[in-house]
Amino acid sequence: MSTLKAVRGTRDLLPPETELWNFVEETARRVFARYNFGEIRTPIFEDTQLFARGVGEETDIVSKEMYTWEDRARAQSEKAQSLTLRPENTAGVVRAYIEHKLGETGLLQKLYYIGPQFRRERPQKGRYRQFWQIGAEAIGPPSAGSESPLRDAEVLEMLATFLNELGITGWRLEINSVGSATDRPRYVAALREALAPMKHLMCEDNQRRAETNPLRVLDSKDANDQEIIEKLPKIADYLDDASKAHFAAVLAALDACGVKYEVNPRLVRGLDYYTRTTFEFTHGGLGAQNALLGGGRYDGLSEAIGGPKAPGIGFAMGEDRLILTLQSQASWGQQIADEAANTVAKGPHAYIAPMSLEVAPNALELAQKLRGEEFRIEVGEPGLKIRRHFEFAEKLHAKSIVFVGENEVFGKTYSMKPLGSRANIVWNFTDFSKFVSALRGTNRNLVSGP
Ligand code: HAM
C-alpha cells in the first residue's frame, strides 16, 4: 500500500516553526487590540451563493478555484445545498454582520480574524491550496462614519505599524482608487471600447475577460499582453469628484502619519466587491508571489448579498507569506528562529525519571506540581534502567533529570541532577521552594524559563 501524504498544496506546520506562527498571531492580536478591533470566527464553509454573489462569478476565485460540493439533502423533497470551503473571509464577515444585525448598534464594527482559507491554485512558493490569512474589516452604517477616508487611512496605518512591530522591513504599499459604483460602469464601458479592436491579439483568458469583466484584464500577468494593457484608459480619469476627494483625503491622512505609498493606477485587485480605495503591500523577498497582503473598500458588498447599506474597508494578510518574509530576513529571522529553537528544541526544563511502575503516580504528582510552577516537564517511562533514562533526557535536551524512586518516595526527598554536571542534589519535601529555585538556576539560559 502506498503511504498517505498531505494533499497537494497543503502542508503540516511543525514545532519549532509553529512558535514563529504563534509569535506573528500574538503580535497581530496585540496591535489590533490597540485600534479597538475584536476577534470574529466565522465557519470554514458557507453557502456557495455567498461567494458567487459577494466575491463575483467572473473572478478567478469563484470561476475556477473554489472547493465546492453538494451537501446531502435532509429530505427527499429537498434540494441539496451547495457548500464551499471559504476562499476568503470578507464575505463571511459581512454575512455575519447582516445575520446578527450588527448595524443596529449604530456603531462601526471593527473585526479581525485569523484562519485557513482554501483556493485551488497551482501550488508554488508562497502559494498553497490551504493557506492562512490574518485579516480585519471595519464595517458599519454610514452614520457611524464607515465611509470616511479616515477609516481607510487608519487601517493602512495599523498595517504599517503591525509590519514594523513584527520586524518586517522593506515592504512597499501600492494604493489606488477604483471609484464608486457609478464611476465603475463608465470606466468599464471605456475599457470595453478600447479593448474591442485589440482583444484578438491577446491571450485566450484576456479575450474572455474583455467580454465578461474587462477590469480583470488590468491585473493579468500575461507578459505578451502588457504592452496593450499599458495603453488602456486609466481609472483615475473616470473618477467623479466625490471619489477623487475621498482618495485625496486618504492620501493626505497617510502623509500626516508618515506612511509611505506609491499610487498604482492599475491596481484593481482580483475580487469584484471593491469600490474606491484598493491597496497591496508587497515584499521583494517573496519572489513571484510578492503580495504580503491586499485589501480595500467595499461599500456595496452588504447590499449585494441582501443586507442593509454598510460600507466597509478591510484587508487580509497571507500569514504563510509573512512567515516566509521573516525567515528570509537573515538577522531578524535568525533571532526568532533561535528563540523558537530555545523554547522547543532545547527541550524541557526537567526530565522526571520514575524508577519503577509503583512510583509512577508519585512521578506524575511531582510533574503536576512543577508544571504548576510553569516548568516544562517530560515524564519518562517508569522502570527503565537508569542509563536509558539518561539517554532519553539527553536526546530531549532536558536541562536536568529528577529521580523518583522508592528512596525518594519513602525518604520524602527530591533528588535532582543538572545534566552535564556531577552534582546530585537532594532536598527534603519541606524544602520544595529550594528545589524550585535550583531548577530555575539550571534553566537560566532558557528564553521561556520561569
Ligand atoms: P486577496 O488578495 O485575495 O484578498 O488575498 C489576500 C492575501 O492572502 C494575499 O495578498 C496573499 O498574501 C494571501 N493569499 C491569497 N491566496 C493565497 C494562496 N493561495 N496561498 C498563500 N497566500 C495567499 C482577500 O482575500 C480579501 N478578502 C482581502 C480583503 C479583506 N479585502 C477587504 N477586506
How do you describe this structure in short?
The protein has helices at 17-34, 48-56, 60-64, 90-99, 149-166, 183-195, 204-212, 215-218, 226-230, 241-257, 301-304, 319-328, 330-343, 360-371, 386-395, 406-411, 432-442, and strands at 38-39, 45-47, 68-70, 82-85, 109-118, 130-139, 171-177, 262-263, 275-283, 291-297, 312-318, 350-354, 377-379, 400-404, 413-418, 425-428.
Describe what this molecule looks like in 3D.
- Its main location: cytoplasm.
- Keywords: Aminoacyl-tRNA synthetase, ATP-binding, Cytoplasm, Ligase, Nucleotide-binding, Protein biosynthesis.
- L-histidine binds at residues 88-90, 119, 133, 137, 269, 273-274.
- GO terms for molecular function: ATP binding; histidine-tRNA ligase activity.
- InterPro entries: aa-tRNA-synth_II, aa-tRNA-synth_II/BPL/LPL, Anticodon-bd, Anticodon-bd_dom_sf, His-tRNA-ligase, HisRS-like_core, HisRS/HisZ.
- By secondary structure, this protein is an alpha+beta fold.
- It folds into two domains: 17-182 and 240-338, Bira Bifunctional Protein, Domain 2 (BirA Bifunctional Protein, domain 2), CATH 3.30.930.10; 348-443, Anticodon-binding domain (Rossmann fold), CATH 3.40.50.800.
- The chain contains 17 helices and 16 strands.
- The protein has helices at residues 17-34, 48-56, 60-64, 90-99, 149-166, 183-195, 204-212, 215-218, 226-230, 241-257, 301-304, 319-328, 330-343, 360-371, 386-395, 406-411, 432-442, and strands at residues 38-39, 45-47, 68-70, 82-85, 109-118, 130-139, 171-177, 262-263, 275-283, 291-297, 312-318, 350-354, 377-379, 400-404, 413-418, 425-428.
- Helix 1 (17-34) packs antiparallel against helix 5 (149-166) and helix 5 (149-166) runs parallel beside helix 10.
- The radius of gyration is 28 Å and the shape is elongated.
- The two termini are 47 Å apart.
- The relative contact order is 0.11.
- The structure holds histidyl-adenosine monophosphate.
- Histidyl-adenosine monophosphate (HAM) is lined by residues 88-90, 119, 121, 126-128, 131, 133, 135, 137, 270-271, 291-296, 298, 314-318, 320-321.
